[in-house]
Design a protein that fits this description.
Length: 322
């Protein structure tokens, strides 16, 4: 079984940022252009007086130096499926080797101004919850309180046999003991994806760690392609949308149904949907407003411009029965 490889791309030496991430980082502190400001003001008009559920994707973390999967400049990728991971020891070995390298890069990422703006929105009582497709934990690191990690967390590892939960930090130390010198040998070899998948070719000698308790199979706490988001997590995310009077999407192309379904749900309920993303999304046709711009700048503008919830505008009637 062949797993398609993404094409080799170069990274800026020294910074670890891709060209896209560097560009977005430069824009992070930028004010919106006049045209963007007009669109953002239209969003403020739509969202004013409503509490929002916020759905975020990889476009929010590019300012933190984490490359996007599907941004306009991102190379096409085809991530490993759950079936490939559990069914093929060679692919699993390759996955862990690449994850080991990628994790060591991404663990140092810190929240950016966009994450800070989300914290500000929550502190002002404007959010019912943050539903994120990112596994990087940067919303929680920034200080957001109600975060639903839809696709899992890159700081945890699960045993598929006994259900033990491990810190990724601890498993990293275990992998280092099993593979002395490996990180140094492959350093700087290739590109990194938001799920900590590093472009590394030398994986045949990598020793995979088994569960320290039962010798079972370990897997990063991600929702893989071909795997369902756990039901209780989906329920919490729907509850955040149901508690809200509007849905704001920031930095997701909504390529996978796990995120798109919340847009469909909000639209069905007649709640305003605003999408901020650089490039097309699968939810554009359902959105009341789509703004094509960097999400960091947009969220900062909304956080300082939106009026307090309920200020002069009637609240959404509230929870519906589904
Ligand atoms: Zn176990």
């Amino acid at each position: 079984m062949a797993v398609p490889r993404k094409p080799q791309t170069s990274r800026d030496p020294g910074t670890g940022l891709t060209g896209l991430a560097a560009r977005e980082a430069a824009e992070a502190s930028a004010e919106p252009t006049e045209a963007e400001r007009q669109e953002l003001d239209a969003a403020v008009e739509l969202l004013a007086g409503r509490r929002m559920a916020l759905l975020t994707g990889a476009g929010l973390s590019t300012d933190s130096g984490i490359p996007d999967y599907r941004g306009p400049d991102a190379p096409p990728r085809n991530p490993m499926t759950y079936q490939q991971f559990v069914g093929d020891p060679v692919l699993r070995q390759r996955y862990w080797a690449r994850n080991h390298v990628g994790w060591h890069h991404l663990r140092h990422a810190v929240p950016n101004a966009g994450h800070e703006a989300v914290v500000h929105l929550e502190e002002r009582g404007l959010l019912t919850g943050v539903i994120t497709q990112n596994v990087d934990r940067l919303h929680s690191d920034a200080g957001s309180i109600r975060v639903i990690d839809l696709h899992g967390r890159f700081d945890r590892v699960l045993c598929l046999s006994c259900g033990s939960v491990y810190t990724r930090e601890g498993i990293a130390r275990l992998l280092e003991r099993l593979n002395p010198g490996y990180l140094e040998r492959v350093a700087g070899e290739g590109d990194i994806a938001p799920d900590a998948d590093a472009e590394v070719s030398d994986t045949e000698d990598f020793t995979v760690a088994d569960c320290p308790v039962c010798d079972g199979m370990l897997k990063p706490d991600f929702v893989y392609f071909g795997e369902n988001v756990p039901k209780d997590r989906v329920r919490l995310a729907y509850a955040a949308v149901d508690d809200a009077g509007a849905l704001l999407v920031a930095g997701s192309s909504l390529t996978v149904m796990s995120g798109l379904r919340f847009v469909r749900h909000a639209a069905r309920e007649g709640k305003p949907v605003v999408i901020i993303n650089r490039g097309q999304t699968r939810g554009d046709a359902l959105a009341d407003l789509k703004i094509n711009m960097g999400v960091g700048t947009a969220l900062q503008y909304l956080a300082r411009t939106l009026p307090d919830p309920g200020a002069g505008v009637p609240q959404h009637p509230g929870r519906h029965s589904d």
